[in-house]
Design a protein that fits this description.
heterodimer; A: about 70 residues; alpha+beta; two-stranded antiparallel sheet; 5 helices; B: about 220 residues; about 15% strand
């Protein structure tokens, strides 16, 4: 079955009690780009972006990124 | 070249293309009208008919031209000169020749205009900064096909059109041989094919750009 990478931004924001706006200001990434990540529309993520998100959310890359089965697969 | 200079040059080229477009559109509309008007005023009596007809053709000149003794016989003599190109004929016979010789550049003009249309649209996107717009790929591909078709159709029209024109005019003299000719631009044909291939390269660039835009 085909798999894809899911970005658990929603879950982590909820756990850290942080809004998307606050995260955007903390990491210096626009709301639009964070929204792309949140909706799973991103094609790739830079290491620098991943590092900034992990530092802002105080988590590991594995907490943020998760492998999941494609629904359509 | 700096990005600012590139943008300025792009705008300058776009403006130049726009001017050429307007001039050629006016020409494409006016040419058949002028041809028809002049053609309708050509006298019916061949003796009164004096039209200049330009057609791509070949010519061979033999010594019979200058040597009456040779001209009197069947043998045209020694080949003195040979060439081919856009020859201007003083036509006093053919009626169709006038229209045929005008039709050839008109047809080629339409093919050229279609290509120019694609180039203008492409440059409109470039001026707007949309270097990697999806629409650019089919436009570049069409431009390539226009160049290929132009370089295939032109020699065909030159030869067959020229044959019809020369046949209608029935020009001839001792020691002068006229025949249809054509130019085959292999480099132009290969350039067109290269442009079609480049369209594929641009398609990949568009895909990479799209992916980059979604790389956070």
């Amino acid at each position: 079955m085909a798999k894809s990478v899911k970005v658990n931004l929603d879950l982590l924001l909820l756990q850290r009690k942080m809004s998307l706006t606050e995260l955007s200001e903390k990491v210096g990434i626009t709301m639009a780009n964070l929204s792309i990540l949140k909706r799973g529309k991103g094609k790739a993520i830079r290491f620098s972006t991943l590092l900034a998100l992990c530092e802002a959310l105080d988590c590991e890359p594995g907490d943020l990124l998760q492998l999941e089965d494609d629904e359509a697969g | 070249m700096s990005p600012t200079a590139e943008i300025r040059l792009t705008k300058l080229v776009k403006r130049f293309l726009d001017v050429i477009w307007i001039v050629l559109i006016i020409g494409a509309v006016a040419w058949p009208i002028v041809t028809l008007v002049v053609g309708l005023h050509i006298p019916q009596d061949p003796a009164e008919r004096h039209t200049d007809v330009s057609v791509y053709s070949g010519f061979s000149i033999y010594s019979a031209v200058t040597d009456p003794a040779v001209a009197a016989g069947d043998d045209p003599g020694v080949l003195v000169m040979r060439g081919q190109g856009d020859v201007l004929y003083h036509n006093t016979r053919g009626m169709s020749a006038w229209y045929l010789s005008a039709a050839i550049p008109e047809i080629m003009g339409f093919i050229f205009l279609f290509g120019l249309f694609q180039v203008r649209k492409l440059f409109s996107q470039l001026v707007d900064g949309a270097w990697y717009a999806d629409e650019n790929v089919p436009r570049i591909r069409k431009l390539g096909w226009v160049v290929v078709i132009f370089n295939l159709v032109l020699p065909l029209l030159q030869y067959f059109g020229g044959r019809a024109v020369l046949g209608d005019m029935e020009l001839g003299a001792a020691g002068i041989e006229l025949y249809p000719a054509f130019q085959f631009n292999l480099l132009g044909l290969v350039t067109g094919l290269a442009i079609i291939i480049l369209a594929g390269v641009i398609r990949e660039a568009v895909s990479i750009r799209r992916e980059q835009a979604l790389t956070i």
